[in-house]
Amino acid sequence: LRALHYFTLVRFFGGVPLVLTETTTLNDIEVARASVDQVYEQIQSDLTEAISSLPATYTGASVGRATSGAAKGLLGKVYLTRAGTDQNSAYWKMAADILKEVISSNSYALWDDYADVFALQNRGAKESLFEVMYLTDIAGNNFSTGYAPRGAPIVPGSGSGILRPSKALFNLYTEDDLRKPVTFLTRYIHPTTGQTVTLSADDPDPARAISFWKLADLTNATSGGSAKSFPILRYSDVLLMYAEALNEANGPVTEAFDALNKVRERAGLEPLAGLGKEAFRAAVWQERRLELCFEGHRWFDLVRTGRLIAAVQSETSFSRNPKIASHHILYPIPQREIDANSELRQNDGY
User: Fold this and answer.
1) Average per-residue pLDDT for the chain
2) Nearest alpha-carbon partner for 299 in 286, 313, 314, 289
3) In this structure, what DSSP letter does residue 80 have?
4) HEC secondary structure over 138-152
5) What's the per-residue H, E or C state across 162-219?
6) Eight-class DSSP state of 316
7) pLDDT (tens digit, 9 = 90+) per residue, 45-96?
8) How far apart are CA 263 and CA 103, in angstroms?
9) Which SS3 state, helix, strand or coil, does residue 347 take?
10) Amino acid 319: pLDDT
11) Which of 33, 106, 115, 154 has the fewest CB atoms within 10 Å, counting from its CB?
C-alpha cells in the first residue's frame, strides 16, 4: 500500500517527502522532498519485499487483500513508467519479465464477457489483481449518482452529471466493439413517463449527456451506496503492459501479439497481425484507452509516453479551448502543504 500511494504521488507531483517510519513526536516533522529516483527506488524496494512476503491468493473474507501477484503487476507498471519514452531503457525488459511471471502463474484470466469484469458477484475474482471494494449502502461509492445524466431519475437521488465522455472518445469505439454498450449509457427509460430518453455526445446539456456506465450499480437504495469496485489493476492491463514492454524490448514478437489480441478478441474485435514496431506501439496505446477507460490510467499513460500536451490540445469537445504548458505534466504542490512544511518547494511553473 505504501508503494501504491508513493507511486501515485511521484507521478502527480514528482519527488515528495519520504516518510518511512511512524511519526511519534513533533520533532523533525518537516521533511524536504526526496528526488524522483529516490522515491522510485523506495517503491521498488517495497514491492520487492511485498512479492516475497505476500501469499498468492486469499480465501473467504480475506479476498481482496493485496497478493504477491498484485505486487508483481504493480512493479511491472512501475518499470514501464520508468522506461518512459526511452526505447533503449533496460526497464522494458524488466517490466516484461515481471509481468510474464504474473501471466505464467495462471492465477488470473479474462472474463468472456466484458460486463462480467465489473459485476458485483465477481469482486476480487479472476481478472482482478487489486481493487477498491465497497459495501452496498454501508460503505459505498457515488459513481452511479455522480455520473448518471443530470436529473435522471434512474439512480437514488437522481443523477448529477458531473462527468461526461468526449465525442472523440465515444466515437473511438467501433460499433462492433462489445465494450461500448457496457462502458456508456446512451439511453434510458424514464421510470415515470415510460418514455425513452436518448442521450448525446454533442449536446452540452448535462441532462442529455452520454454517461460513463460500466461502474454503475443499480442495486443500492442510497445515492452514495454503490458497491461496485474501483479497479486498480486488472489482468487485461497486465496483458497490455506486457505487450507494450515486449514490443519495446524485442519488437512485435508473437507473444506480444498474443497478449494484445486476447484483449481485442474479448472485445469482439479482429486480431491484429503484421504490424511493425511503431504501429504495434500505437495499437497498444489505443487498446489501453478503450479497455481501461475511466479506470484512472489515461493521464499517467499520456505522461509516461510523452503525449499529454498534444492529447489535451486536441480535445476540443463542447467548444473547449484547452490550455496546457509543459509544467502542467506535474501538479502543483498544494499550498496548504507548503504552509505546513517549510522544507517543501513548489514545482516549476506554479
Assistant:
1) 96
2) 289
3) H
4) CECECHHHHHCCCCC
5) CCCCCHHHHHHCCCCCCCHHHHEECEEECCCCCCEEECECCCCCHHHECEECCCCCCC
6) -
7) 999 999 999 999 999 999 999 999 999 999 999 999 999 999 999 999 999 9
8) 13
9) coil
10) 83
11) 106
What would the pLDDT profile of 4-18 be if each residue is shown by its tens digit? 999 999 999 999 999
Give me 28's grid cell: 523533525
DSSP-derived 3-state class of residue 174:
coil
**Contact call for residues 286 and 280 (beta carbons, < 8 A):** no
Question: Would you give the end-to-end CA distance of the chain in angstroms?
Answer: 30
Q: Provide the angle, in degrees to the nearest 10, between the axes of the packed helices 254-266 and 235-250.
A: 150
Q: What three-state secondary structure class fits 233?
A: strand
Tell me if 209 sits within 8 A of 198, measured CB to CB: no
Max CA separation in the chain (angstroms): 65
Query: pLDDT value at position 132?
Result: 96
Kindly state the cell numbers that stand for 40.
522510485
d(CA 160, CA 89): 45
**Cα 311 from Cα 284, distance rounded (Å):** 16
267 CA to centre of own chain: 18
Sequence length of the chain is 350
Task: Give one DSSP letter per residue of 50-69, joined into a string.
Answer: HHHHS-S---GGGTTS--HH
